[in-house]
Amino acid sequence: MKKAFDVSDKLFELYHRVHRLLNESMTEEGVSLARSKFLFYLCKLGPCRSTDIADALKFAPRTVTEAIDGLERDRLVVRQPDPDDRRAKIVSITEMGRQALEAAEGPRKQMIGELFATLDDRELDQLHEIVGKLVIKAEDMRAKRKDEISSAAE
């Protein structure tokens, strides 16, 4: 079991180091890693409500609203009335937001390329398979946990 904890600790350490390095590199280009996630999903989803973004990113609606407030203040997104629901707003990425996202993409690709160049193709394939298995198991565990909580609540 100690070995599993050691590997887990290394994975968390890697995640945090890469996250920090990515964030620093992308922020130097004008958009942080967190902000780029919002902009990326707006590009992918197209104009949408903030609740759609919250669902896509699995964030609390309040977190998304605060992030959109900042992005709008910096003119990276714009809110417009929803033609189908006058109480709601549709969020769209602006041209300035697209440019900021594009500028941050270069350092992200460069940093990831440099990091993973440490591994040969066989190692990359193995890592992909191993991490994939862990992701599936974690999702299964989460679903089981949610089922158990639901059953206990009934």
From TrEMBL:
It comes from the Bacteria. PROSITE patterns: HTH_MARR_2. GO terms for molecular function: DNA binding; DNA-binding transcription factor activity. Gene3D superfamilies: Winged helix-like DNA-binding domain superfamily/Winged helix DNA-binding domain. Residues 8-136 form the HTH marR-type domain. Keywords: DNA-binding, Transcription, Transcription regulation. This is MarR family transcriptional regulator. It comes from Xaviernesmea oryzae.
